[in-house]
Structures are given as C-alpha cells and as structure tokens.
Amino acid sequence: MTATHAKATLPRKVLTFAGLGLILLYCLAPFYWMAVSAFRRPSDQFELTALPAPFSLDNLTAVFSPGVGFGRSLLNSLVVAGTTTVLTLIIGVSAAYALARLHFRFKNAVAALIIATSMFPGISLLVPLLALFTDIGWINTYQSMIVPSLSFALPLAVWNLTAFFRQMPEELEQAAMIDGCTRGQAFRKVILPLAAPGIFTTAIITFIAAWNEFIIALSMVNDSTMQTATVAISRFTGAYGFDQPFGTQMAAGVIVTVPLVVVVLLFQRRIIAGLTAGGVK
Amino acid sequence: MGVRTTVSRATAALGVAVLLASCGSGGDGGGGEQPGGALEGRGEVTFATGKDTSGNMQKLVDEWNSSHPNEQVRIIELPESADAQRQQMVQNAQVKSDAYTILNLDVVWTAEFAANRWVVELPADTVDAGKFLEPAVKTAKYRDKLYAAPVYSDGGLLYYRKDLLDAAGLQPPKTWAELTAACQAVKATQPAIGCYAGQFEKYEGLTVNFDEAVHSAGGDVVDASGKPVVDSPEAKAGLDALVTGFQQGVIPQKAITYKEEEGRRAFQAGELLFHRQWPYQWNLAGKTDGSSQVAGKFDVAPLPGLNGPGSSTLGGHNFAISAFGKNKATALDFIKFFTSEPSQRSNLLATSQAPTLASLYDDAELIKQFPYLPTLKESILSAKPRPQAVRYGDVTQAIQEAAYAALTGAKPSDVALKDLQAKLQELLK
Amino acid sequence: MTAVARRARGATSGAGRLAAALLSPTFVVLGLVVGYPLVAALRESVFREGTDLDESGFVVEGSRFVGVDNYTAIFAGESAVRFWNAFGNTTLFTVITVALEVVIGVAMALVMHHAIRWRGIVRASILVPWAVPTAVSALLWRWIFQADGVANSIIGQQILWTTEGWQAKFAVILADVWKTAPFVGLLVLAGLQIIPNDVYEAARVDGASPWRQFWRITLPLVKPALLVAVLFRVLDALRMFDLPFVLIGSRKESVETLSMVAFDEASSLRFGPAAAYATILFVYVAVTALVFVRLLGADVIGAARERARK
C-alpha cells in the first residue's frame, strides 16, 4: 500500500514541479522584462540584454521625484481600492446571501439584472456619469472613484459569492439554528468561515480591479492631490516633446504591482487562518 | 420599515438621476457664453495641459502666481497622449463643466473647438501679428477670427548623418532624387544603413507625413478655399515617393510601425541616414551619455521635395479659453503673460520647444545654443497647415486610411487618393 | 418534510422582505452608476447631434430625434462592413481568449492547489499579470512586440506585429490571455479549496486514477466557480477595448472590436451612433450570456430553487 502510494506520487511530483515551472515562466517572463526595463539606465532603456547593465535606480528615483507626488497617488489608490473592496464585500455578501439562501419571487430576474449591468461597454458610461457627478458636485472626491469601482465589482462579487454560499450544505446552518443561533449568527459563524476562499478571492479580484481602474479616475478627478497611481503614471512625461518615459512607466508599474502581491500574500495567510479557526471544522 | 425607507430612498435617488438626465441633454445653450462677448471675471483659474516636460510651465505659473495673489493659476495635467488630452477636454465641454479654464490645444483642434463654441473668441490684439510667425497665428484662427494664442510652433526637419555625407563628399539633399542618390553613395561603404524614415504608423503622424509628401511634390490636400484637391497628379507623385520608397527599400520595412519615438531610437542607434523629425530630437540625439550613437555626427536641413525644397506640415500648440470656465479676464491675462517674449524665451531654453515669436529665431545667443533655429524658422515659415476642419478627426482618419492602405500595398496609390478625394468632399462640403 | 414545505410557502412574505433589504444596497449602487448612464445612453442612441454649420461657421446646436436611424445606419454601406468586421474580431477574440484562459487557468489552479511547499510563491507569481495595471501592461507588450523588440529578437525574425494582419490578432490574444488567465485560476482555486478532502480519499480508496478523479470529482465540484469565472470573462472579452487600442492602435481593421468602434464614434462627436453601437454590443453580450447560461447551466441561482423543490 505505502509502496504503490510512493510510486504514484513520484511522477506526480515531477509533473507538479514541471507545471509549476511552466506557470512561473509564463506569468513572470513578461514581468521580468518589465522589471529589467525599470532597472536600466534611461540612456540604455531599449537594450535587449537579459540583465540591466549597468544596474540603475534612476527610473525609480524619477517615479518618486518631488514634482510627481507619486507617494500621495499611491495613498489615494489605497484609499479608493481599500474602501471599494470593503464595501463590495459587505454589500455583495448580503446580496449573495439573499440569492443563495432566501426564497422569493423574481430571484432569477434579480440575478439577471445584476449581471446585466456588467454587459454595457464601460467607456460608453463615462460621459453620462461625468455629467451626473458634475451636477451633484462629486468631482475631485474619493466617492466619485469608489462608487463606480464598486458598481463594476459588484456583479462579479454577488454572482461568485452566491455560487460559494450555495455550495455550503444548508444542513449546517439549520443545525446551528437548532442550537439556538439566529439566522445571522448561523451565517456568520458557519457559512462565512467555510466560504473563506471564495470571499478572499472576491476581495483580491475587487481590490486589484479597483487599484488598476484608470478612465473613471482620470475623468472624475482633476486635482493632482486626489489622483490615483494609474492616473499619475499616465501623466509621466519624458524630458522633451514626444519623448516617452518608458523606463519610468515600467518602474512605476513594478512599484504598483509588487506591494499588491506581497500584501495579498500576507493577508491571505492571516485571513484564511483566522476564518477557519473560528469555523466548525 | 427599515426596508421601505431604504427602498424609497433608492427610488428617490434614481428619480433624481433621471431628472438630471433630462436636464443635462435638454438644457442646451444654457451654459455657454456667447463668443465674442467681453471676457470678464477675475480670480482663480485652471490651466489644462498635456505635458509639462521640463517643469518650466510650473515655473512660469509660479512666477505668475507670486505676482497675482488673487488670480492664482492651477495646472491640471492631462495624460501624456494627445488623444487622451482631447478626450478629456471634449468630455468636459460636453457636460459644460467649468473644471478647465485655459486649454492647451493642438493646432489642429482649433476649428473643432471654435465651431462647437467650446472656446471663446479672443480680442484680436491678444496676438501682435507683426511679431508672431504668421503660419502659427493662422492656426489659432477659425473663419478669420482669433480663438487662441499660439504658444508653441513646430516644423519638420530633415535630420541627416553629417559624418557619412561628408565622407561621401555630399551636401544635404534638396530633392528626393538627391536623397536616394546620396543614400546609394553612402551605402557603398555602409551597406546596413537604412536611407530614410518618418512617421508612418497609422496615427496623426502619418497625416503629417502624407501632407508633407503631397505639398513637397507641389500638390495640395485642400485648396485655398478649403476644397479637397487630393486626386491631382502632384499629390500622386508625393504619395508615390513614399510608396516606392517602401517598395525599393529606401524606407526600411519596419518604418511602417514608426511613431516619433521608434524612429528616433533607430536614428540614434545609427540605423538611418536621413530622418524626418521634429526639433525635439536635436537635444536627445546629441546626448553624450551613451544613449545616442550619433551625437556630434548629425545636422539638420530643410525637408527635401520633388523638384526642390519641400514644405513641412505645421505643428504646435495654442492656448484657448474654455467657454464654460470662470474668470476669463484672468485667463486672458495669463495667456498674454505666457506668450510674452520672456516667457517664450525661458520656455525655449528649458524645453527646446519651438517658440512662436519671430524675434527669438534670430537671437544670436539662442542660436548658439540651438543651432537648428534658422533652419526651423525656414521650415515653419514655408510650412503648410493640415486641413482646418470642424470634423478634423474624420478628415485625419480618412487621410490615414488612404495613406496606410497605399503604403502597405493594400491599395494602389491612385485608387487610394481617389477614394480619399471622395471622402474629403463629403466631409468638407 | 414540513419545514421545507412551510418555508416554500412562507417564502414570499418574510424572506421576500429580508431579501429586499439585503439586495437594495446593490441596486442603489448599480442604479446610480450603471442604470442611470445606461438609460441616458439608450436615450442618446435615438438622437443625432447636429453637424451642420450655420453661416458664421458654428455648429448648429441641439440634437434631433431620429428614431432607429442610428441603428439602421450601422447596417448600411461602409458602416456595415466596419460593423461586421468588428463583430467578427470581437467574437474571435472572445472565443479564443476565453478558451485558452479556461485551460490555462484551470491548470494554474490545479498546480497551485497541489503544490504544498511553493504554494505561496506560485500564487504570488500568478497574481502578477493580473495585478499589473492594464495601461502599463499594454505598453509593456507594445514594447515587447515592436519591430526591434524582444519578441522578434527571441524568434530571430522581423515580424511587424503591430501592422494589419494575423500577427496583430495573435499579439492581442497572447497579451490578453497572459493578463486574465490568472483571474480564472484564482476563482477556480477558491472552488477547489472548498472541496472536502475526504471526497478524494474515498475516490483513492476506490482506486480511481487521477485523470478519472479530475473528470468525475474535481470538475463537477468546481463547476459553479468555473462557470462564474467563464461567464464574467466572456462578458469582459466581448467588451475588450484597452489592449488592442494601446497595443496595436485605433482604426486597425485586424483588431478593431465593437467597443473600439463605439469609442471611436464618440470621439468623432457622433454620440448618437456611438450609443447605438454600445447598445447593439449590450444586446449581443446579453444574448451570449443568456445562451451560455442555458447551454452550460451556469444557473447559479436556479439550482437553489431546484433543491428547495426536492
């Protein structure tokens, strides 16, 4: 028994490692090129060598040069994306719970309506939205970026969470309710922890989508102290005329990507550990 | 109870939204001031512009702000790409937003912005016609009325490898035939070098290069009265020069993907003998930090033509005042300040962008720093504007469509031009 | 089961009210940001802006009601050619990118799920393409695919990727799959994580091969998550805009999508026709989603009803 088990796992291990390698290569090779471009000197920006030679931090320092206010932009992005994520989860979880667990008329129509809102080409919503936000005085505010990001993220969040909640056996909740939990408590203590992977994934996807949102942030905000990181990147310019600051843009790309990945990693362990600890496992 | 209030609040919000919808599109004519009226109001203004490449714009704004404490100017930086800049300005005009007061417009946008009443007419004395370059002033006018003040001009130059031409004992070419001949002579010793490139990717740069080719062959895209005349033999000769250039390898195949920057990199890598480019390349190609292989080895000449010197397409930027902005009197003063001689001089020194005041081109001190100024002045003075059209976007797309089809061999040049003529007749009628 | 029967009957009153309370925030937000602009766009699509000039050269203001003219104009003459080309590109991009993303995404999820030691690093790497801002990644790919770029240097040929032709389509597909396969991977991984381990134990005891386990156990159990992922990818791919726009350029026949046509019309100040294009795209997306849900049973909500009926 143990022998066959070991035999089965060896090729499997090799396969897994090969798969790992391929995936890493596929995901990271273009990003590697981005990082390499970021660490070249601006003067040899367009070399094709595999390593930056000589290694240079010029592009990085250019990103954080005082006039640009990139630090402030990162903070704005954090506020917008963070708030969007929290609100999306709160609103999305309650809507998903209703769709997954409650029985009411027009449920399918409601679900269809929610997803229908992500069927219209986003760029065509821009001008009416600008008119609306201008009229209600939302220009240069965080909410002018948060609310649209929220609405772009909600349909996916609701549908995805609904799918997850539905996979949780209803008997668990019923058992908890028999034990004296209210419906809300049963949901919070039983379903949420079990659905943690789904919730966490929804959070990651929402956060990244909001973090990368560009056209709304560009159109609704004209005060540079309120701009987000993606907008700041689009405003980088070279020193002369058409000179495009490719290296600086790539450096900024690395700067906005890497912390995101690191933070997600850290959070992921904490959150999943925390949620499952409180669960009924 | 709680549910009902939430729901009714929701419907209320939607109701408001729908009301706003009907107001927004029905209330036309309410927001805009009549063009030609007095420019009134003093106070804070905003200045929407593309790139502040050197930080000099901010420096000039700071200078203005320190002497005008009650009329502060705030720069709103728009994205780096010209299309995105126009999109932002058009969007704000559509919703009649007062977010932007002063607009930094590309010269080809003047007609569109003026005809749609998105910018206001300026007093004729805003610009002293005697001191400014005449072609630049023309780009700021629509139907003979001034809607903007020319701040930057631009003209194409022929960058050439002086070292290689000198070695072959040649002068910079004045005609396309001389250019091809010079290239063949140089190729005897430098077989790998590409002869010529401009901007041939399908974007605004292609319109610029196509217009130049047509004008330099003695043709016109539109005549003096604005009628399209692009199906002439001269226009065909111009377009054919580019088409055969690609066919015979005088222009490298990959140049079809070139915008300004791709071409500049090729020139700086020593891959090109001749390159049609804007003045900004001068400083970058002359850098000795290793980024340019051709530093000290190149010079500029006026663009060549079919039977003699060619003529450039006019570029540049003008400042206008949004019809929906507040404090237009301040805006006008700021524009005058920005186009004044000291401001333009400091701009030239900081950014090497071509000024619009004629006197700066003849200034010995400036020429010492920017040796190409006399050539540039010549280029701008003989430059031809792109068609001034209210629907310029459609016009330039039609031109790009035709030129790209001819250059890639999708259509013979005469068919492409005939189709273009028909399109333009429809657009410019 | 009386409890079930009771619940089914009482469903409309108590549960209905609770459902309304739980769903209303979603609808308020969606109504404000999507609903209102959508209604505005629909209204716009039956109007046409004036393009005529008055005697002094000003555009005559005001739009006039033109009924379905904006729609019929799309299917006539040159616009029809452009429309069907864009329609074809949109469909082609959607079918190919989503298919590739599903295969690669599921593979990613499986590898991530089985990798124990490196899981953290692998998951972080997979996040990278999805986390790079679209604008920056489009620039990156443009640089990779330019004439002297690294793509050509690797294959040792000079292919002009950004010119018209199959190679432009290929570049767009490659860049899009790179960016969004992780999205599918993440959602599927989450689906894998909630499959209880004992299901596999049982299968292993029964002697099922890994391949069989995948088809018989894994796939059916991640189906809900996978279908949601695919459905939203389809919706997104049908509206593809940024990537071909930045990577290849506007007005390039080979890669022009319906969203790009709508945008292009709007930037030429033809707001009515632009809104009509957007509406047609909306209908196309809706029909696709409907067919998808019917065919593949991505019936996330309906199944709950079934179970309740049982």
Number of strands of chain C: 2
CATH C-level category of one domain in chain A: Mainly Alpha
* CATH architecture assignment of one domain in chain A: Orthogonal Bundle
Computed over alpha carbons, the radius of gyration of chain A is: 23 Å
- Low-pLDDT sequence parts of chain A: 1-7
| CATH homologous superfamily identity of chain C | MetI-like
Q: What structural class is derived from the secondary structure elements of chain A?
A: mainly alpha
Give the CA-based shape of chain A.
globular
For CATH, the homologous superfamily of one domain in chain A is named as MetI-like
User: How many domains comprise the coordinates of chain C?
Assistant: 1
SSE order of chain C, one letter for each helix or strand: HEEHHHHHHHHHHHH
Major β-sheet profile of chain A: none
Describe the fold and architecture.
The complex is a heterotrimer of chains A (281), B (429) and C (310). By secondary structure, chain A is mainly α. Chain A has a domain at 69-235: Orthogonal Bundle (MetI-like fold), CATH 1.10.3720.10. Chain A has twelve helices and no strands. Chain A has helices spanning 2-38, 58-63, 70-101, 107-116, 126-135, 143-167, 170-178, 183-194, 196-212, 215-220, 229-234, 246-277. Chain A is globular, with a radius of gyration of 23 Å. The two termini of chain A are 29 Å apart. In chain A, 53% of the residues are buried. Chain B is an alpha/beta fold. Chain B has two domains: 45-154 and 314-381, Periplasmic binding protein-like II (D-Maltodextrin-Binding Protein, domain 2, 3-Layer(aba) Sandwich), CATH 3.40.190; 157-313 and 391-428, Periplasmic binding protein-like II (D-Maltodextrin-Binding Protein, domain 2, 3-Layer(aba) Sandwich). In chain B, the strands form three sheets. In chain B, strands 2-1-3-11-6-12 form a six-stranded mixed beta sheet, with helices on both faces. In chain B, strands 8-9-7-10 form a four-stranded mixed beta sheet, sandwiched between helices. Chain B has a two-stranded antiparallel ribbon with strand order 4-5. In chain B, α2 (56-67) links the parallel β1 (45-49) and β2 (73-77). The longest helix of chain B is centred in the first third of the chain and has 25 residues, at 2-26. Chain C has helices at residues 2-44, 69-74, 77-114, 119-131, 134-144, 150-155, 166-193, 197-205, 210-238, 242-247, 258-267, 271-296, 302-309, and strands at residues 47-49, 63-65. Chain C is an all-alpha fold and 310 residues long. Chain C has one domain: MetI-like (MetI-like fold), CATH 1.10.3720. Chain C has a two-stranded antiparallel sheet with strand order 1-2. In chain C, 75% of the residues lie in helices and 2% in strands. At the A-C interface, α1, α3, α4, α5 and α6 of A face α1, α3, α4, α5 and α7 of C. Chain A: It is found in: Cell membrane. Chain A: This is Carbohydrate ABC transporter membrane protein 2 (CUT1 family).
